[in-house]
Design brief:
- The protein has a four-stranded antiparallel beta sheet, with helices on both faces.
- Helices cover 48% and strands 15% of the residues.
- The chain has helices at residues 7-28, 43-50, 55-58, 75-89, 126-154, and strands at 34-41, 61-66, 111-114, 117-122.
- By secondary structure, the protein is of the alpha+beta class.
């Protein structure tokens, strides 16, 4: 196990909350046709992934719900930028002060940072993007907790993560 947080875990967590997210969009946001979701981590967690790769390649999950092509906004690029900003600052975009902003950053908020787990959403209203982001971040944290419990149950004498 190289890292507890990985692409498989992020996908599994996302798929657990996906039905609830889809239902909320259908019932409470019928005018929205899709949103982008990005799962990443702060540099403290994903430093080994930083290297010379793009931010998108550092992400654990880049996905969408619904049809992004029906929006006039580049929601996938906005979600990626929100996640990058939060990974860089370890803050949700709604909490970023102006001095954190750099050229190329998005003007939209709608990300979550939960114990180093970064999730960003774009395609809804910023407050709803943030809500979806926290739901996914909480699911990722829960799946990481579950993965560690399984790891320790299988290796009762482990002093370190393999």
């Amino acid at each position: 196990m190289a890292s507890i947080l990985n692409e498989t875990l992020a996908r599994r967590a996302f798929e657990k909350v996906l039905p609830a997210l889809e239902l909320m969009m259908q019932q409470s946001m019928p005018d929205r046709h899709g949103c982008a979701i990005v799962v990443a981590a702060t540099d403290a967690i994903s430093a080994e992934r930083a290297g010379q790769v793009s931010f998108r390649e550092r992400c654990y999950l880049v996905a969408s719900i619904g049809d992004l092509s029906r929006s006039p906004y580049p929601n996938m690029e906005i979600a990626l930028k929100k996640a990058e900003m939060s990974a860089r600052t370890a803050l949700p975009t709604s909490a970023l002060a102006p001095h954190h902003l750099q050229a190329g950053d998005t003007v939209y908020s709608g990300s979550a940072v939960l114990e180093g787990i970064v999730v960003a959403c774009a395609g809804l209203e910023p407050r709803d993007d943030e809500m979806f982001s926290y739901w996914v971040a909480a699911a990722v944290k829960s799946e990481a907790d579950r993965a560690l419990a399984v790891y320790l149950a299988d290796r009762g004498d482990a002093d370190f993560i393999d």
